[in-house]
Design a protein that fits this description.
Elements lengths: L2 E10 L6 H9 L4 E9 L6 H11 L3 E5 L6 H11 L4 E6 L3 E2 L3 H11 L5 E9 L7 E3 L8 E3 L1 H7 L9 E4 H6 L11 H13 L1 E12 L13 H14 L8 H7 L8 H6 L8 H4 L7 H10 L3 H9 L5 H28 L4 H20 L10
Parallel strand pairs: 1-2, 1-4, 2-3, 6-10
Antiparallel strand pairs: 4-9, 5-10, 6-7, 6-9, 8-10
Helix pairs in contact: 5-7, 5-9, 12-13
Length: 374
């Protein structure tokens, strides 16, 4: 069997029931990874028994056991450090990739060796038998490499991370998963890589994220803890370490995907009126600033939000809205091209379009976790 220069890194805690599906999905790929590094985070269920059984049958599995719970970001960073492959696929024990993903990703890296990562459509489901909701960002109709400037233009807020392969050196250079960013750590790491080296997008659904109460994404916490984490995000984007990518975050307003808590985090900073800070906050719709300026309980937040209701920031926000409208137009053109390639006849096209509308409606009502697509 052919082997890819790829390490799968999988963190697990108490997912004994879901582990077989996740492991089978990577071990049965037509192009096998050279290794599957699994870090078990002191599971208290039958996870170790499942993992030991798989490791006995599959020599490519490297099982790392934690004696005490270390946390998700620590485990992934350990896996990134141990990975021997040129590329790494960060896999969650409760998610799974679809057949052909590894081969297709490696083919694109052969074509575009300078790319930092390769990402396919992700999908999510609300349970074992729930419907799949596809996250189709509408970037392209065929696998395409996007340089950093184009990534900045097309990635409005995030990347679908249930089907992603990244260069090992690039994820290490990005700082791995920053522990201070908690549930935003993968979002940040992948955007840093894409903004530095560009990304290949495969317009095909090749990964599935399963939503359930025990998943990391659904256990994220709003409120004061979220403000603290977003404060750390601002610290990183204003640090010398990420000075090269901070302009991309300002240009596309990616951090504003996390809601008004970003403004609340910025209001705590003594430098909150600096252009470098304000630029990171200028991605909301005007009504968000209006609501914060009128009714937030913190006077510093009200004052900071009011800045964006005045020139020149009002003009900046208007220009960004125009850019997003242009992006939406491009996405619609791509989707129309797909519609023309849909099954022949009126009935076939209606059925195809109806399926797309149903998927988008399911997404709109919240079947994927807020803030991320995994």
């Amino acid at each position: 069997m052919r082997t890819a220069d790829l390490s799968v890194v999988m963190a697990n805690r108490n997912h004994a029931r879901l582990l077989p599906r996740a492991l089978d999905a990577v071990l049965s790929q037509s192009l096998s990874p050279r290794e599957v590094v699994v870090i078990d985070d002191a599971s208290t269920d039958d996870s170790l028994r499942v993992l030991e059984r798989y490791a006995a049958k599959h020599p490519s599995i490297r099982l790392i056991r934690n004696e005490c719970q270390r946390g998700v970001t620590v485990n992934y960073n350990r896996g990134f450090a141990l990975a021997t492959g040129k590329y790494v696929l960060p896999g969650a024990a409760d998610d799974y990739v679809l057949p052909g993903f590894v081969a297709k990703a490696m083919r694109e890296f052969e074509r575009h060796p300078h790319a930092g990562l390769c990402v396919a459509h992700g999908s999510c489901t609300d349970g074992d038998d729930g419907p799949l909701v596809v996250n189709d960002p509408g970037w392209c109709n065929a696998p395409t490499y996007f340089a950093p400037d184009e990534v900045c233009r097309r990635v409005w807020h995030t990347l679908p991370v249930s089907a992603i392969v990244v260069r090992t050196d690039a994820i290490r250079d990005a700082g791995g998963y920053r522990s201070e960013l908690a549930w935003y750590s993968d979002w940040f790491a992948f955007l840093v890589v894409a903004f530095r080296l560009g990304a290949v997008h495969i317009p095909e659904t090749l990964g599935v994220h399963v939503l359930h109460r025990g998943s990391y994404a659904t256990n994220s916490h709003p409120g004061a803890e979220n403000v603290r984490i977003l404060s750390s995000l601002l610290d990183l984007l204003l640090s010398p370490e990420y000075a090269d990518v901070a302009p991309y975050f300002r240009r596309n307003g990616a951090a504003c995907h996390f809601g008004p808590d970003l403004v609340r985090a910025a209001a705590l900073r003594p430098d909150r009126h600096d252009a470098s800070v304000l630029g990171l906050l200028a991605g909301f719709a005007p009504d968000v600033y209006e609501s914060l300026a009128a009714s937030d309980e913190d006077p510093a937040v009200r004052e900071l939000a009011g800045v964006f209701l005045q020139d020149p920031w009002r003009e900046v926000i208007a220009r960004r809205a125009d850019l997003e409208a242009e992006n939406r137009r491009l996405v619609e053109e791509i989707q129309l091209t797909r519609l023309r390639a849909a099954p022949p006849g009126l009935l076939g096209k209606v059925q195809w379009a109806g399926g797309m509308i149903r998927r988008r409606l399911r997404t709109a009502v919240g079947l994927h976790p807020a803030g991320r697509f995994r």
